């Protein structure tokens, strides 16, 4: 049976001076302040859609990689994944997410570097969030810890 997760956002004002919030409605775990400045400048205390996408992608990739490794008979001890989501407000054709770079480090016993790299790529390709973001270039750096 499919699960539907819910999130929402509200916005007040115009794009450049306005602000809003994004909420995790299913879990009710957090509400985040959002604004345009957080998308185009270093910021603190305010998030943006790209950071939220990065968190979702890192979480999903970690879960997918765990499953791929376990299915290989080499379950991981630990997986740490980071995601860098690049937003270009001046991209040709309009503002765009122009790339996502995943960095993963995993502790896995009895697995060669070559097999580790193949499985890391397989997890990227099978990750549901990677599939949803297929129109964006997704790159990966993977290392055995």
Automatic annotation (TrEMBL):
InterPro entries: KH_dom-like_a/b, OsmC/Ohr_fam, OsmC/Ohrsf, OsmC_Ohr_Peroxiredoxin, Peroxiredoxin_OsmC. The keyword Oxidoreductase applies. GO terms for biological process: response to oxidative stress. SUPFAM superfamilies: OsmC-like. It is an enzyme of class 1 (oxidoreductase). Coiled coil: none annotated. One of its GO terms (molecular function) is peroxidase activity. Its EC number is 1.11.1.15. Keywords: Oxidoreductase, Peroxidase. PANTHER family: OSMOTICALLY INDUCIBLE FAMILY PROTEIN. This is Peroxiredoxin OsmC. The lineage of its organism: Bacteria, Bacillati, Actinomycetota, Actinomycetes, Micrococcales. The gene is osmC.
């Amino acid at each position: 049976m499919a699960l539907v997760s819910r999130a929402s956002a509200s916005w007040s004002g115009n794009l450049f001076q306005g602000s809003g919030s994004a909420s995790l409605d299913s879990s009710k775990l957090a509400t985040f302040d959002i604004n345009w400045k957080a998308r185009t400048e270093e910021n603190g205390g305010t998030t943006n859609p790209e950071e939220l996408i990065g968190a979702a992608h890192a979480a999903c990739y970690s879960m997918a990689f765990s499953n791929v490794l376990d299915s290989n008979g080499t379950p991981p001890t630990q997986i740490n994944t980071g995601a860098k989501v690049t937003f270009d407000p001046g991209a040709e054709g309009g503002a765009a997410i122009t790339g996502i770079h995943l960095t993963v480090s995993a502790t896995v016993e009895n697995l060669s570097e070559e097999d580790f790299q193949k499985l890391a790529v397989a997890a990227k390709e099978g990750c549901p969030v990677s599939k949803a973001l297929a129109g964006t270039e997704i790159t990966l750096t993977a290392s055995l810890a």
